[in-house]
């Protein structure tokens, strides 16, 4: 999948578009090695979903389309062959989108972007209806390698004795298999200490604690749902559980689940529609409650470590950090001693996905942070309120040190974020969602005063979109290091037509060239700029430069200005390595005054029937108030 295609999927996810990938890319997701360069996307052609598509396309390439473009019978496409992106409103051989959407299968790219593909059964139906030679080859692959159907020499389809096609029913697997019992059969052990209510925590004894799952019932459906607190992508039903822990071949996943169903006739079998209850009839815990129990988080009572870093009791107990810092006990069997660690939850839109664990000589991340970041207490901002300052640091302790050096003025509403070190690939998306939600008047980049911290600034600003500043939408950028001595900035420019695009790109390349090569050392190569791709509404160019502090600082400043963010983004480097060290050395912190309030953007009006993703950013763990 190309970078543009993956970015487009990310935009669809961000706007909560109902879609499923079809065609060759979908077949590839089931393990096929056949060539497929273009991306075919089937969308729900409803008015509500069409509005989301309009917003997605504007976000992706800056083009303004009409909702009718996504409800009529025509195919909408972006880019050029062979890497075109095609948007379909109907699929040959299949009926309504809504009839097939519930059966979609979640997958993810190598870079961690999650997306949905058509179920193998629906893919086979659509491919048979299309009937082209390559479609029939896809049918053969899906039937033999995914659905478990073999062909005799005369090409007549013969169902295998163990895996008849009519029994490949993912809903049957989800509703008739008790996930807790199934996991025990696979060698998982129930953790009695961390289980409670309606959730069950299980772990693999030989995994060093990394392969741990929490299972809880989805009320009213009879289907168990699980997640792995150490891996944000490891979640779903028994189908995803087995697929991730099996061979990765769908035919093997299906066979394994079918065999298990054949064995459970002597067990207490769950029937379709049966509601899972316990003797206490307690309500199913929320995901956040189950995660907190799994990580064994305790209310913050031991603040010795925080105070050893120079933080005052007033800072530690500030409202901004309530329900954002916890304790967790650790017993060292070798030393026969119990320690109390300080813990900072890492959250994404679904809730806590990992934790930062800190103590003297302890600095680890427990779990897969994925697109998560640490977030201070958003309850200091009333519901629907707007943040005055959003401060982004690498660690929560740096953010708390920043707070102590320059507390919020009276009436100032401040939100702190911590990226847990270098940016993960998905962290900028989570930061962007928080910017969209709270629309901060000022965003302070408070990362470390080293090259890695400046690169974090560049990549956060590069992906940033600020309401009301069109340049921030039109220009997107990412910096990587092809080698330790070389840096490469990839800049993507969206424009309404090629003439305007040519002018924009020329101005940008001239600006970067002039700034980066001005007064550069004689023995240092100049920055080189090359255009990599031209499309009707999108152009991409690269800036290759020596990986020096001077070049990185010039790049962050120029990128901030080019995106029109110089009045919104404040680039604040500490005097020493980080703001924790600044605090300990008694340095002074001066902030740029808050800009005048911009007109707040109106939230989009959704119909009463519109499905809403409920963000968990501002939901503290239950029972964790101090």
TrEMBL record:
Residues 599-626 are annotated as: Disordered. InterPro entries: DUF6036, NT_sf, TOPRIM_DnaG/twinkle. It comes from the Bacteria. Residues 15-140 form the DUF6036 domain. This is DUF6036 domain-containing protein. It comes from Rhabdobacter roseus.
């Amino acid at each position: 999948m190309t970078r543009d295609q993956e970015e487009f999927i990310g935009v669809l996810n961000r706007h909560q578009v109902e879609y499923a990938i079809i065609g060759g890319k979908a077949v590839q997701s089931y393990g096929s090695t056949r060539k497929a360069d273009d991306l075919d996307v089937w969308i729900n052609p409803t008015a509500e979903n069409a509005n989301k598509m309009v917003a997605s396309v504007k976000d992706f390439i800056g083009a303004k389309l009409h909702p009718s473009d996504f409800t009529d019978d025509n195919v909408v496409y972006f880019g050029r062959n062979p890497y075109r992106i095609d948007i379909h409103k109907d699929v040959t051989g299949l009926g309504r989108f809504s009839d097939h959407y519930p059966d979609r299968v979640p997958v993810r790219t190598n870079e961690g972007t999650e997306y949905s593909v058509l179920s193998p059964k629906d893919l086979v139906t659509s491919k048979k209806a299309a009937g082209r030679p390559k479609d029939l080859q896809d049918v053969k692959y899906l039937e033999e390698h995914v659905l478990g159907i073999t062909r005799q020499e005369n090409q007549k389809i013969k169902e295998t004795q163990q895996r008849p096609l009519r029994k490949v029913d993912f809903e049957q697997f989800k509703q008739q298999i008790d996930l807790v019992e199934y996991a025990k059969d696979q060698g998982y052990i129930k953790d009695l200490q961390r289980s409670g209510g309606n959730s069950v925590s299980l772990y693999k004894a030989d995994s060093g604690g990394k392969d741990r799952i929490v299972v809880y019932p989805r009320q009213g459906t009879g289907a168990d749902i699980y997640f792995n607190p150490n891996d944000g992508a490891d979640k779903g039903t028994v189908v995803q559980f087995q697929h991730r822990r099996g061979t990765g071949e769908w035919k093997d996943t299906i066979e394994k689940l079918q065999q298990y169903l054949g064995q459970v006739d002597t067990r207490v079998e769950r029937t379709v529609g049966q509601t899972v209850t316990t003797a206490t009839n307690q309500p199913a815990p929320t995901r956040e409650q189950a995660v907190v129990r799994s990580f064994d988080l305790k209310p913050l009572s031991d603040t010795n470590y925080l105070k050893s870093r120079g933080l005052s009791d007033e800072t530690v107990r500030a409202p901004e950090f309530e329900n954002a810092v916890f304790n967790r006990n650790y017993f060292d069997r070798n030393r026969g001693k119990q320690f109390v660690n300080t813990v900072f939850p890492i959250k994404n839109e679904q809730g806590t996905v990992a934790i930062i664990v800190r103590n003297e000589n302890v600095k680890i991340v427990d779990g897969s942070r994925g697109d998560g970041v640490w977030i201070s207490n958003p309850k200091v901002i009333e519901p629907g309120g707007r943040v005055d300052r959003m401060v982004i640091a690498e660690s929560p302790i740096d953010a708390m040190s920043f707070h102590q050096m320059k507390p919020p003025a009276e009436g100032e509403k401040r939100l702190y974020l911590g990226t847990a070190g270098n940016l993960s690939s998905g962290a900028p998306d989570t930061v962007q969602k928080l910017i969209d939600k709270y629309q901060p008047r000022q965003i302070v980049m408070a990362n470390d005063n080293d090259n890695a911290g400046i690169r974090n600034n560049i990549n956060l600003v590069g992906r940033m979109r600020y309401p009301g500043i069109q340049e921030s939408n039109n220009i997107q950028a990412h910096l990587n290091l092809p080698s330790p001595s070389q840096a490469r900035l990839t800049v993507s420019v969206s424009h309404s037509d090629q003439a305007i695009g040519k002018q924009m790109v020329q101005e940008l390349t001239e600006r970067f060239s002039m700034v980066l090569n001005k007064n550069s050392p004689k023995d240092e190569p100049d920055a080189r700029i090359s255009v990599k791709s031209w499309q009707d509404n999108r152009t991409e160019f690269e800036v290759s430069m020596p990986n020096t502090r001077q070049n990185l600082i010039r790049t962050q400043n120029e990128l901030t200005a080019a995106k029109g963010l110089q009045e919104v983004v404040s680039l604040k480097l500490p005097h020493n390595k980080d703001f924790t060290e600044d605090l300990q050395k008694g340095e002074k912190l001066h902030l740029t005054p808050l800009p005048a309030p911009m007109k707040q953007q109106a939230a989009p009006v959704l119909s009463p029937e519109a499905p809403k993703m409920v963000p968990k950013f501002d939901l503290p763990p239950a029972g964790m108030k101090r």
